[in-house]
Amino acid sequence: MKAAAGPLAALLLAACAVTPEDPLVWSDEIARALPLEGGEAVAVARFSSAPPGEVAFPWEPYVILRGNVPTDYRVVELDGTAAVAAESRTGSSALYRKIRIDPRRHPLLEWRWRLPSAAAGEPTLRETSGKSPAARVSLAFHGDTSKLDFEDRTQLRLAKALTALGLPYASLVYAWMDGVPVGTVLPSPYTKRARVIVVENGETPRGEWLLERRNVLEDYRRAFGEEPVEIVAVGVMTDYGDDGSPRRAYYGDITFRAAPD
Q1: Is 61 helix (H, G, I), strand (E, B) or coil?
Q2: Backbone angles phi and psi of 210, in degrees to 5
Q3: What does the alpha-carbon distance between residue 14 and residue 154 come to, in Å, rounded to a whole number?
Q4: What does the alpha-carbon distance between residue 237 and residue 92 come to, in Å, rounded to a whole number?
């Protein structure tokens, strides 16, 4: 077997060593800089009280691949309340905010989302989301990369070099995905450090707001078989369909709550 050549070989070798000045994951900076959230409830997103137009800071675009056409995210009025509308026609990107949350103190996650009713002639959800979820709410976790094996560290190093921002230590993605039973945990096709949990599928009626509740601490343990450290970012994402068709989704408020005594 021939040795990897040029830049790829350098990346593979570099994956063995990480320094504070050259971390494998972008969550290092967040863990050092942001305070840990407190109180009984953590209001991650209050889109319902936002003015129409561009989504304001602390929310910002998360570009996965350099040069990719981003998804359009903006606050709109829908059924008497404000929400973030996501529309992707030819590319994809996420919308996220950096925030530090202890999942042991605030394990309960709530959010609202909605897929629009299909118009006449539009493809069905089954046709557009065979592999790619129609809507996602994602959580990024911080962790100690020195505890990862060589393969995991290599994937993180390559992601840092080949994508716009790289990856966090671990990601948990709640997905609206047709053709997969609710409750299924799927591995990411790109990295072992991400898991997808299906919470809605094609049996869910479109055109209605749905309120989701998840225990993030239990979900992380089930997905990764380990204890989480800290949540360092929360995001939403919609991309175009597997068949190339445009897709839309709406996202409402997102809140973490403390566990009841």
Answers
A1: strand
A2: -120, 135
A3: 8
A4: 8
Closest C-alpha to 219, from 141, 131, 133, 115: 141
Residue 163: what pLDDT? Answer: 65
Tokens matching residue 92: 């994809």
Cα separation of 239 and 94, whole Å?
8
Evaluate the CA torsion angle 57, 84, 236, 141 in order and state its sign: positive
Distance CA 8, CA 79 (A): 51
For the chain, the C-alpha Rg in angstroms (whole number) is 19
Buried b / exposed e over 206-228, threshold 16 CB at 10 Å, is beeebeeebebbebbeebbeeeb
Say if strands 230-239 and 210-215 run parallel, antiparallel, or are unpaired. Answer: unpaired
Task: State the pTM of this model.
Answer: 0.86
Q: b/e string for 135-172 if b means 16 or more Cβ within 10 A?
A: bbbbbbbbbebeebeeebbbbbbbbbeeeeebbbbbbb
> Minimum mean pLDDT among 105-114, 151-160, 174-183: which range?
151-160
Burial of 95 (0-12, 13-18, 19+ CB in 10 A): buried
Strand 185-187 and strand 194-200: pairing? antiparallel
Backbone phi, psi, residue 43, to 5°: -85, 90
Detail the DSSP E strand segments found in 107-246: 108-114, 135-142, 170-176, 185-187, 194-200, 210-215, 230-239
Q: Are 133 and 175 in contact (CB under 8 A)?
A: yes
Question: What average pLDDT does the chain have?
Answer: 84
* Position 131 confidence tier, pLDDT thresholds 50, 70, 90: low
- Judge contact between 67 and 164, C-beta under 8 A: no
Closest C-alpha among 147, 162, 159 to residue 194: 159
| Main-chain dihedrals φ then ψ at residue 52, nearest 5 degrees | -60, 150
